Amino acid sequence: VTPNLSIRRHTRRQLDFPEIFCPIIYPGSEPVRQQRRLPRLLGEGLVIFLGAALALFADDWRESRAEQREVHQSLRSMYSDLESDSSQWIRLGAETQIDAEDALWLLSRWDDASLAPDSIVARIRGFRTTPRPAFRRASFQGLRTQNHLRLIENSALRELILDYYEGFIPRIEGYFDERVGARYGDVNSALEPHLSVYAAVSGGGISLRSDWDAIRADYRVEHGLLGFYRTASFVGGTAPRGADRVAAIRSAISAELGLD
């Protein structure tokens, strides 16, 4: 007897069975349908994933580009700031060098029996409290605050910047705060009793109230001059190193940004 298989050739719509009963009536139909839909679903999921990944990549790229522009702008500002710092170092070195030479001139003649008043006044007139250098930090502080130092790709440039702003400048400023003002104050206080117009020491127009013998007999003057000379010599010798660091940073920034 030949089995009647015609019923299997009928579709679900021809037999008008509800969709829910199709897997029961035709147990082999639903798995085949699912197998056909699976590649399409995988393809759609892959497209969605790639679209989301590309969107995130594009956002990261735009953000990175914006940060790099900000870093380059900060480096350009730093380049200008360092030009001002270079002038500060040059001025500081020149002034303290003159102060050290004047103090050494007097100390080297301490045992002389006599010394012309005009020559003494010429040296004392130069003594002054060298102003604390005002270095510009705005560009560096901007890079530090925004955590953009890590974005400087040139590691040598990054190390130069950190050494200058976080190492060298704080050391010289600390020395100024602790030693320079005190030593300049000591020598001026020691000289005050021997000058007729002490208030005008930094502006000229002074004259001696004491002769050379009385001045060199005052141990406070010699002690003040010695401390003054050592301090001025240290600062005067440090200033060229500061100028060299500034020049190295500016050269590295110029190479990094392609500046003339």
Write the layout of secondary structure elements.
Blueprint: H1 12-15, H2 22-25, H3 29-108, H4 117-125, H5 138-145, H6 155-191, H7 212-217, H8 219-257
Helix pairs in contact: 3-5, 3-8, 6-8
Structure report:
By secondary structure, this protein is mainly α. The chain has helices spanning 12-15, 22-25, 29-108, 117-125, 138-145, 155-191, 212-217, 219-257. α3 runs antiparallel to α8 and α6 (155-191) runs antiparallel to α8. The longest helix is centred in the first third of the chain and has 80 residues, at 29-108.
Index terms:
rod-shaped; 8 helices; mainly alpha; 260 residues
Shape type = rod-shaped
Q: What string gives the helices and strands in order?
A: HHHHHHHH
Oligomeric state of shown chains? single chain
Count of helix runs: 8
Task: State the secondary-structure class.
Answer: mainly alpha
Distance between the first and last residues' Cα? 101 Å
Number of strands: 0
Radius of gyration: 41 Å
Helix content: over 70%
Proportion of strand residues? under 5%
Would you tell me the overall average pLDDT? 81
Largest sheet: none
Unreliably modeled segments: 5-17
